[in-house]
Amino acid sequence: MKVMVRKSPNVIDFETNEYCLWLLEQTKVSVVWEQIPSESAADKIPVVMMSNDLPDAFLGFNFNQNSQVQYGMLEKIIIPLNDLIEKFGVETKRMFAEQMGTESIIKLADGNIYAIPTYSDILHVNYAQKCLINTTFLDKLNMEMPNTTEDFYAYLKAVKENDPNGNNQADEIPLIGDTNGWHHDIFPYLTEPFIFDDGMYGRKVEVDANGKLSSILDKDGYRDALKYIRRLYAEGLIYEGALSMKADQYKLIGENADAMILGAAMGAGNGDITEVGGERYKQYRAIPPLEGPTGLKQTPWFRYANVRQGAYALTKACKQQETAFKFGDFMLSYEATMRLRMGVKGVDWKDAEPGEKTIDGRPAIWNRINPYTGEATNQHLSNDGMFYETRGMFLDDCVVEPGTDIMEGILSQFLLAIETEEKYVQYGKEVFPPVSIPKDNADEFASLEVELSTFYKQARASFVTGEMDIDKDWDTYVNNLNSIGLKKYVEILQAAYDQASIKIGA
Questions:
Q1: What is the pTM of this model?
Q2: What letter would DSSP give residue 79?
Q3: Residue 428 CA neighbour count, 13 Å, CB half
Q4: Residue ranges in the chain modelled with pLDDT below 50
Q5: How far is the C-alpha of 491 from the C-alpha of 403, rounded, in Å?
Q6: Of 224, 236, 308, 389, which residue is least crowded by CB atoms under 10 Å?
Q7: Greatest Cα-to-Cα distance within the chain, rounded to the nearest angstrom
Q8: Is the CB of residue 311 less than 8 Å from the CB of residue 120?
């Protein structure tokens, strides 16, 4: 088989990776890995799809529904898997049976499944839109954890003006974000106190109690959020690079060698800005969702984030479809998943011994030998590829020795779960679910989505930097949204939602 894979910087080489070698030994399949760096995947895939040199399978590219409609339903480059699942999908059907709704989420409007998903049940992923604050700075400034937008403004201003790192230099950076990191965008978290923003997975829509959709992009609450963000930016409280820099620069700021300079950052967890388990890592905590001027306090509940769509797809070039499908299906098995995520059994992890307990006192199932570091590895695939991981397999069923420091080793992962449970779950609001766009509307909808996304992202940056005036230019901005086709976009989404089997609150 020729398998094209998306390779993150966390994976050294699929050819020599211990998990990949074990996978080939177990399946008796010979694989040529075509490794595409994750940062260039978006540009590479359309070129591959138009070529005469298709792989047999794509692994780890996480094709969203728009991509599956385009490459599957319309262009028929990736093939329907329904019959293969029915005949040979041992692990796939187990996942569908154990995780209700998964099959419905990935099925397109024509009734076909074009790609197998990764399933990973991780609590902090369901509430991943967070802001992290420097608790050492809070203590130095004699301030409490921010609760409101004005509290947060006051903290950022104090970081900028009061030298909390004590080096007699104005080198502190109050708040950072970036353009491509996982939940690093500055806008969604700062918008929530004013109007619901469904974040990086969303379509900037709300659904009312009657099931009616509306866009947030032309609402007064969204304009108020932009005014607040503009205020922070104009006073130098948001790092200028937040609107342009990439995620690979994040830790350079969080782990700045000369002095600790970072006051707060958008991100899903401390490891986004610091080295996992290090001294700086221990100094950051998640801020609860901020309360806005009208008392609004909310955070997006990414209910369907456990299902990462489009992880494994077969192409029309695949001649041995049964073998290729079974190869992917096997990746969803328990041991394959544990090895893909943890590494070599007996070296990186092992089965728990009788009497060993979890953090909450239950009998443990597995024990991690080598703690997660976030560094590049050749022992496993980290978060790449495809797997079926329950919450217990991720963390909850592991051995925890009594008295272990919560910030050390494996327990540093529990920090994310604990912070999420204590600070975010109670404020969760369900985001718009994945819906399948009918074939007749697919091309138009895909074009509208790209054009609207490009426009509103450019406009929000212009409003925040002052290039456009939020009051004077707002009507023009709304007219441009409508000229692009915002109302048609919502209309198509509404029709798809009305026909969908999955509803908010159900």
A1: 0.86
A2: P
A3: 21
A4: none
A5: 56
A6: 236
A7: 69
A8: no
Residues 6+ apart with CB under 8 A from 15: 33
- Measure the CA–CA gap between 175 and 238, rounded to whole angstroms: 5
Whole-number Å distance between alpha carbons of 98 and 86: 16
pLDDT for res 159? 98
Determine the pLDDT at residue 252: 94
Q: Which of 9, 5, 72, 73 is nearest to 44 (CA)?
A: 5
Dihedral sign of CA atoms 336, 337, 341, 342 in order: negative
Distance CA 31, CA 22 (A): 12
Same topology for domains 2-118+308-343 and 131-300, yes or no?
yes
Neighbours of 238 (CB within 10 A): 24
Neighbours of 362 (CB within 10 A): 11
CA gap 496, 63 in Å, rounded: 19
Q: Is 2-118+308-343 in CATH node 3.90.1170.20? A: no
Q: Residue 434's pLDDT is what?
A: 87
d(CA 418, CA 60) in angstroms, rounded, equals 29
CB 59 within 8 A of CB 79: no
CA–CA separation, 101 vs 185, rounded Å? 29
Q: What is the pLDDT of residue 19?
A: 98
Per DSSP, the three-state class of 391 is helix
- Sequence-ordered list of residues with C-beta below 8 angstroms from that of 403, at least 6 positions apart, any chain: none
Q: Cα–Cα distance between 4 and 33 in angstroms, integer? A: 6
Q: Are 116 and 445 in contact (CB under 8 A)?
A: no
CATH fold of 131-300, please?
Answer: D-Maltodextrin-Binding Protein; domain 2 (3.40.190)
Cα gap 505→214, rounded to integer Å = 17
Domain ranges of the chain: 2-118+308-343, 131-300, 439-455+472-499
Which two structure tokens, joined as six digits, stand for 431?
């985001």
> Which pLDDT value is given to residue 385?
94
| Cα–Cα nearest to 67, from 486, 331, 323, 434 | 434
Q: What pLDDT does 17 receive?
A: 97
Q: How far apart are the C-alpha atoms of 457 and 452, rounded to whole Å?
A: 8
